[in-house]
Amino acid sequence: MRILFRIWRTAKIAVPGFALVILLGPATLFAGETDFQTAHDNAYPHYREAVFYTRTGNTPVAALALDEFVVKWSALVEAHGDNPPGEYAGGAAWESTLGDILTRAEEGLEALDMDDPEAAREAIGPIRAILGDLRRRNNVATWSDRVDALSTAMDLLARYRKEVRSLEDDAAVAMVREQAALVQALFEKCQADAAPDIAADPEFIRLIDGAAESMGRLLEALETKDPRLLRIG
C-alpha cells in the first residue's frame, strides 16, 4: 500500500518548540478487509486532500481532489449501497448514510466550481464525523479512529496546560498529568495499530519517537516542578 501522506493535525504540546504532525494514509480496518473497505480506502484520501485544499484556499486543486472522491464514492454507493458488507449488515441507515456523503460531496464540488471554498468546506466538513458515527454504530474500528481520538486528547491536553498558572497548583498539575498519560497511551496504541508499511516508515518513526520524548519531558516537568521544561501561562 502506497502511503499517501497528508497533514492531518499539527498540535503544539506542552514542551516549548515541539510540534507534532500526524501523517495519515488510508485507514486500516481491524474487522477484516472487505471489498467495501478497499473502495473506501481508494476514495477517502481524495476527501482528505479536498478538505486540506479548501482550508488553504487552493480551489482548483481542491476541486480536482473532490471530483475524484465523487467519482470513486459514486462507484462505492452503486456497488454497496443496497449490499452492506458483513460488519455493517443489519446496521441502521446504511444506504442513506452513504447517499448523504455523496450528496455533500456533490454540493461541495458545485461550491468549488463557483469558487467558494468556504461553502464547500461547510458541505464536506461533516463527512469524516458521519463516517466515524457509521463505524461506531456497527462496532468497526479503524486506525483513523485511533488518530482522531489522539487528536482530541491532544487538544484537551493543550487546553489543560494553558490553565496551569503555577506548578504549585496541585489540582491543575494532576489534571494535566492524567491527560498526558492518556495521550501517551494513545500514541502507543496508534503505533501498535499502524499498518506495517506506515509503522516502518522512517518519518512516522521519527514523529512517534519525538512525541514520546516530548511527553516524557512534560511528565518530568510535572513531577519535578521544573518550570524550564514547561511553558506557563
Descriptive keywords:
two-stranded antiparallel ribbon, single chain, 9 helices, 233 residues, elongated, mainly alpha, Four Helix Bundle (Hemerythrin (Met), subunit A)
Summed up, what is this model?
The chain has helices at 35-56, 59-80, 94-113, 117-124, 127-137, 143-162, 170-193, 196-199, 202-224; strands spanning 7-12, 19-23.
What's the main sheet like?
2 strands, antiparallel
Number of helices: 9
The helical percent reads: 55-70%
| Average predicted confidence as pLDDT | 78
- Poorly predicted regions: 1-33
What portion of the residues fall into strands of 2 or more residues? under 5%
Instruction: Provide the number of structural domains.
Output: 2
Series of H and E elements: EEHHHHHHHHH
Distance between the termini: 44 Å
Q: Structural class, please?
A: mainly alpha
Largest sheet, spatial ordering of strands: 1-2
Shape call: elongated
Number of strands: 2
- Roughly how many Å is the radius of gyration? 20 Å
